[in-house]
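Appendix B. Chain record.
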Amino acid sequence: MENKVHPKGLLLNRTELSHCFGIAKTTIDSYVRAGMPVYKKGKGKGDPSQYDTAECLNWIRSWRCFCR
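Structure tokens predicted for this chain:
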């Protein structure tokens, strides 16, 4: 899911997001497959995807509540 609106939080790549949230990069991959929003989808090596921290955090919070 791409968000074409201005970001609400910081825009981070996958590595930065994993450090910010204290989770593994593979966990981010799993979250994206489960529906976590991607602000800008990367086109491969050298053009990483970008994630809006506010949108991702909201998604993770709601997803974790849903899974319990």
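Further analysis of this model is presented in Appendix C.
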